[in-house]
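Give me structure tokens for this 736-residue protein.
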Amino acid sequence: MATFLYRLGRLSFRRRHVVALIWVALLTLAGVGAASAPAAGNSSFSIPGTEAQKAFDLLEQRFPGTSADGATARVVFKAPDGQKMTDPGNRATVQDTVKDLSAGSEVVRVTDPYRAKAVSKDGTIAYAQVSYKVSGMELDDAAKDALEDSARDAREAGLTVEIGGDALQAVPHTGSSEVIGIAVAAVVLVITFGSLVAAGLPLLTALIGVGIGVSAITGLASALDLGTTTSTLAMMIGLAVGIDYALFIVSRYRAELAEGREREEAAGRAVGTAGSAVVFAGLTVVIALVGLSVVNIPMLTKMGIAAAGTVAIAVLIALTMVPALLGYAGRKVKPMGEKGKLLGRAKKEQDRPAKPNLGTRWASFVVRRPVAVLLLGVIGLGAAAVPATSLELGLPDDGSQPTSTTQRRAYDLLSEGFGPGFNGPLMVVVDAKDSDDPKAVFAETGDEIKGLKDVVTVTPAQPNKAGDTATITVIPGSKPSSVTTENLVHGIRDAGTDIKADTDAGVLVTGSTAMNIDVSEKLNDALVPYLVLVVGLAFLLLIVVFRSILVPLKAALGFLLSVMAALGAVVAVFQWGWLSELMGVEQTGPVMSMMPIFMVGVVFGLAMDYEVFLVTRMREAYVHGEKPAQAVVTGFRHGARVVTAAAVIMMAVFAGFIGSSESMVKMIGFGLAIAVFFDAFIVRMAIVPAVLALLGRKAWWLPRWLDRALPNVDVEGEGLRTRTGRDDENRELVRA
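Here you go.
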């Protein structure tokens, strides 16, 4: 592989005009496609195989034309102090509002609070529910404006009015912190390279790669039903790895220049060596992201595949466009150790005695004190992981919104007037098509549910036109995200099993609360198989890369430490509320259900990035004759500075998404940023060298039969060294 990539790097350096033109053309094509593509609607959320999804599909069949997936809005009214919603003036205001809301072309129906008995017992709070034909993301701005105008008119009449539901759902924004993240990355690159040109190359190539990836996702969003979070995740991952991969290529190029090689040769060798690490690091990230499909949640699968595609583009750009741009840069990219005038360093420093860099000094310390460093690192990560034992999972609803939003205020008003469970009603679907007496089954089901704990209200069954299917609305006594409500859902399903045995009628529970419960359970059930699949495939890949059994095993165990510590930090901030003000978390609550499995996938891929980049340098030194302990120090001398810069850049990029208005994106950004910190600076920089120092030559042991069976991918560039030796001999013969 090293030889092939070496030739690719030299070819890209020589044919830089063609390479640059190809990538610019791809960026233009993707941009035009994104601009001309139809606007994407709200991504459909389906969970195949769950009871909630089966019930939803049954409703689509038996209750056609009801727009079950359409947007809804709950307009909540509260009377002024000392008044009631039943007072004539307030009643007239609400009825005028209902009349105004009914005039919209996309409105299916609007319930009158007084006819639907949607007035609280104390008479101070009432609500009208508006149902639309289309989803919240597809709703016209005119319909949203009409909704807000109606609420404003009612407020002017003296009522408190708030709007809940998904009708006012907006496209999430990341805020200025994303730009700050990129700016931090730029500063780190300038400090690392001491040159604006060298620092600009990784940023430019990463932005081009992300531009192509995100534009392609935008262009295909409508056809493939991709949500807005999909492109945000692809941008987050693609930007981080794109900068890092280009950083490693440019750093190796400068190291080759420092050894006296010509620029084209240096570009070829940089791609042949560091590029090999980039390929395998990218493969681990792609495996982890594509592996999310085993969970069988379409939204998660699409997010993973889209992000994996952006990572693949980042790898291709690092292997081709980076050497092409190095050809354009010429002598503006200086050899390693020659910083120029930007940071005030003169070239005369090269004449001074070489002083061991920080990476060398740190590695030497770890090699001398491996047990102490190992224990300190493991105990520290273990302490950070302790909050993960209190992990509570759930999906965000209006109750997790900031208190400044009208959705959250509507949620609180409904809880105040009708109880906490009113915001999470359960819809029970009774399929009595195979029953002899459907009406009796509907009544029996309602009676069974009334006898369960934590049930406040059970509405009469509402049958369809055929009379073979009915819906029953159940209002729990607890809030939607509580364990009590989860137990009620399971209790209704258990009762439905008995009804099925007696009457052949199916009883299914659905609604957003039941769907959230099913999603959490499905994700929990899929976590272990996913972990086995992804870690297993990456373990085999790393055996090929490192030609070792213990090094990949150590890499996997270190990953588990870092991901558990990162989950602990997420729980501490988003569930317990530690540093919540600093992170902009206005409302604490359960951690998003897909967070653990998502972090396992993404963090594993990123963790293997640093493992490959750092340890391949160590193996390269070991293969070329150095003792194991010295190889660790050599690996740090060449790789620690670059890995540190890469980690800081990735943390800055991920942290930039903490400013997002979407709680899911905010949590992902924080989780990935802290996970990179734990993995890069504690696991890879401390635990890894300590373990390798303790293992010595055993770290690189591989059974002979397996060594013969594995393909030789030559990540260390041994073939290039042999090739260079032959070239040097030929040059000497020519001179003679």
